[in-house]
Amino acid sequence: MIATDKSGANLVSLFYALIKDLQVYDLNNDVVQNAAKRLIYYVNTLLNMYKHIELVRYMDYIFFNKQRLRFEIDGYASLQYIHDKLKTNGVKTLTFLPGIDKDEIILFASVFKEEPDTFGKHLASGMFEHISTEFATEEDEIPDFLRDGEHIKRTYFQALKVTKNLLHYLWTNQTADMKSSRRIVYNLINALSQDELGLLALTAIKDFDEYTYNHSLNVAILSLALGQRLGLSKKALARLGTAGLLHDIGKVQIPKQLIYKPGKLTEEEWETIKHHSDYGVTEILKTRGLDEIGLVSITVAYQHHWNFDGSGYPAHEQDQEPTLFARIVRICDSYDAMTTARVYQPIPYLPHIVLRILWKYQNIFYDPVLVKAFIQLSGIYPVGSCLELSSGEVCLVIRQNQGHLARPFVKLVRDAHKKKSDGRMIDLAVDKHIKIAKVIYPQKFRVDVASYFV
C-alpha cells in the first residue's frame, strides 16, 4: 500500500522525469523507455487502488484525487513544472484511466511538453484512449490576491534551492557564483513588500535534516524583515539579505561530523566551531562575482558572534563595535537557532521563550533597540507558536495581527478533545471571548508545524 500523502508527489516526479528525458532523447531511446516503465508501473499500481488518477489544477494548486499536493524541497521543480505546463496548455483536469500502457504514456508525455497549439491539435485527434483532459474556463482563474500566497511559497523554496546549491558547491570545494544568491535576495525583498507576514510565516519551516540550509535562509528573511522595519533602502536590504544568507558560510570548512555531533562539544571542538567566523571570510573571498555586497557579507560573517558589550568571538578589541548588519544578523541567528530542533537540541525552545531570552540579554549580547524592534516584528506569540485556547482547542499562530500583537491569527489543529481539527482560522482580535490559556509544545499533540505552512 502506497501512502496517499506521497502518491501524488511520486506520480508528478516520475512524469516530470519522463518529460525531461524526452527533451533530450527520442521516443525509442533506452533512457526514455526505462523512465516510462517506472512511470507506468507506478500508474498501474495506483490504478489498482483507485478507479482513476486525476490531477486537477485549481487556485494555483495541484490536487491528486482531491488531495492538495504540497510544495516540498526535493519535489519543488517537478511540481512547479507540471503546474506551469497545465496552466500554459489551459488544462484544468488531467485523468489517467485503467488500460493505459507504456507507449501511450510516452506519446502523451512527448505531446504534453509541446506548445499549447501543438498540444491541442494532438488531443483533438483522439489518439489518447486512456487519458482525458478538461480545459479551464475563465471562471476557473484565481484572483491575484489568492495567487500571491503560492507565489510567496515558490519564492521561499526557490531561495532554499539556491542556498542549498551554493553551500553544496563550497562544501565540495567547487567555485560558487554569487549572482544566483543576489537574484534570490532581490526576490525575497519583493516578496516581503508584497506580503511580509506571509513570508515570515515560512520561517516556521524547520527541517531537522537540512538545518544548515533552512537556517541560512531563515536568518536572511528575518534580517530582511527587521531591516525593512528599520526603514532601510532596497540597496541596503540587498546587502543585508545577502549577508544573512552567507553568515554561516564558514561552516563548510568545519567537519560535518563535528557540526552534527549529538553530544556536548569538548572545549577543543568548540574552539574549532568558533573558527567558522574566520573561515567565512576566506569562503566569500573565493566566490565569483565578489563586489561591494560581498564585502559587506565578509564583515557580517566575521562579526556576527560579536556581542553588544564587546565580548564574543573572534577576539577583538572591546571598543570595536559590530556593524548594524552584524547586530541584526546576531539577533536573527540566535532566534532561528534556538527555535529549531538540532542533533544536540532535539526539543527546541518555544518561540516566546526565545523572545524573553533576547530581552534578558539585551545590552549584553544584543542591541537593545534592535531587540525591541524584533519583538514588535515577531509579536508576543511568534508565527509557529502552538497555543491552547480557553476552549480547550489547540491552534497554531499563522500570522501576526499588527494592531494586536497579543491576539494573532490562528488555525485550529486540535479540537477540545485534542482530536485533529478542520483547520478553521480565527482572528483572536475579533473573537475576543476566546482567550489564550497557555503556550504548549506542538510535539505534545503530534502537531507538525511545517505542514501547515507549505
UniProtKB/TrEMBL annotation:
Protein name (database record): HD-GYP domain-containing protein
PANTHER family: CYCLIC DI-GMP PHOSPHODIESTERASE PA4108, CYCLIC DI-GMP PHOSPHODIESTERASE PA4108-RELATED
Alphabetized InterPro entries for the sequence: HD/PDEase_dom (IPR003607), HD_GYP_dom (IPR037522), HDIG_dom (IPR006675)
Domain HD-GYP: 190-390
CDD domains (UniProt xref): HDc
